[in-house]
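fwd from M.: "can u put these together and see what the complex looks like"

so here's what she sent:
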Amino acid sequence: MGRLTKIIDMSSENNPVVEKYKFLLYIDSAKPKSQHAADRLRALCRLHLLENYTLEVVDLQENPTLFEYRRIIAVPTLDIETPASQKHRFVGDLSNSEIFITAAGMMQEATKMAKQAVDIRNKIKPPYKPG
Amino acid sequence: MNDNKISTGLKGLDTILMGGYPAACPTLLKGGPGTGKTVFSLGFAHAQLQQGASAVIATCDESPERLVGYMDRFGMAGSQHLASGKLVLLDFRPNLSETVVGEYDLSPILLRISHAVENSDAAILVIDSLQNLLLGLGVTEPRKEILELFDWIREKEVTTLVTMSASLDNQPHSLLEEYAVDCVIHLSQNLDNQLMTRYLRVLKMRGSAHGSNSYPFSLNHRGVSLLPITATRLEDAMELQRISTGIPRIDSMLGDEGYYKGASLMISGRSGSGKTIFASTMLNQVLQQGEKAIYVSFEESEGDLKRNLQSVGIGLSGYLDSGQLLIHSGRAIEMGLEDHLITILNLVENESPQILVLDPVSALMDMGSSRMVKMLMIRFISHIKLAGTTLVLTELLPDASADYSDLAISSLVDTWFKLRQVESNGELNRLINVVKSRGSKTSNQIKEFTIGDSGILLEDPYIGEGEVVVGSARITRIKQEQEEAERKRYELIQIEQALSTLQATYESKQKVLGAEFESERSELMRKITELKRQAGQVLEQRDAMRDARE
């Protein structure tokens, strides 16, 4: 988690704010653990007021070459590109959402205005429990 | 070559594995850091690429670019094969910035590998190295899913080499070793006398025999070299050609013809007994015939050796310049014994010289336990023999020794010279004798030799009356002998004269005797005639009387 604090750098303030987060979710439709990853991601974003994103789902069974190119060894894998062009990779079905939420929250902090970020952080205090 | 084995790309390893890695199933190469796992796997891939097959390498440690760089540096034409599409590199390096957020499947690993293998129609697959594959996910032990990969390998009959780091402590064998793979090879490093040696051992190989010992090997700029054991099978070709030692009288000590081509010779002696000069004389002789030679010196640098040999009339500079002679100098302590021997073997393999001189081999001998050294020397000597190269070893005997060979390798060499220095009358004199020489009528004599401006000169030592006499004593002895002979000759003349006198006396006496005999005989004959005449007269008178009476 510590390395995510690197995202907060001064340059992002000078840059024009890029609107959207890019979510790339790699799954294997043949594997049960991949089945609900996309739904879970959408739910998490909704819950934590992360609205400005695009989500693309890539299925291993359909596009193996891309997996080679992106060097993916496990599914589901989530690649996030922040509006400040920072890249992050998460592996797993998001069932351990605490880590994801904290990390995602810190990304927002870096790219959104400080006030807005504080609001979101206050809201994510109670950890999200799926199901 | 065995049908169900695939060449490892390393001659020695193929022999140990009796053909190569088992085909159509996974082999595990296990070893600590720095034991050469990557080099082994690159060598394997190269061997297949050379034959026109395709290979897939999944790298989990180093970047594909670096692997290709290694191959290029080891002379394996990595970039060339990569460009032709025969070599496929899968980048499985762990991404350490990944965050694990829940459960996951590892199906992409199998899918990526199978995709690459099927697309390139690869004959072999290399995974280097397995324990780092899941490092990015915080997993260091192979998981159950990895076993699926091995099942797939067997099902698709892909010959696979998997490398894995060995734990330093003696952990029980992992699931992987016991279940998943068909052949396990251990690589290790041993530190002995501060010198590191790498060893290879085949732990198991399903359904096949294999060499079961620990085999030393060396990593160098050309890749992996194993000291193979093939030659210990005693299958050397018979060689009848004889080579002169360059010293005619030594040749005659070896049954008039010199040594057999490809033989191994040893020259033992204390320091200063002339071993180097002896060996160099033989080397020079071969060079003069236009053949190639290698001189490995553990004592002298190339320059020193050249100068020192020049002083006894052996000029090597010309041969060095033309590349006919290669001098390899190095201190024995530079590396382990195995590394030394493998380096020398590589030199021999590259140059295929007719003669190889190791001066002195004893420098290598205190580099390990005597048993281990002997085992290595057996391999080394027989390997050199297999290459058809004549091996000349010099052995430095300690000054305190009673001229006995310390090396237990004298039984391995074909011809063994012993050089000695004998002290007498305030001088040290050099002696040489042939202790043994297989397949030759060897001289039993001890010869004296001197070292002069034109090299080694053999003298006939004084032999007789029990002891060998050398040096000035020998010259005195020869003088004495000459006087003795002179005296004898004089005596002989005297006797001859006496004999002829005797003959003359005999002859004159014989004449006198003959004359006496003749006169005696004629006197007797005369008497006989007279008596006969008188007897006739008597008869005539009797007849006359009878006639008258009638």
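replying to her w this: Chain B touches chain A at residues 90-93, 95, 97-109, 111-112, 115-116, 133-134, 136-137 (CB under 8 Å).
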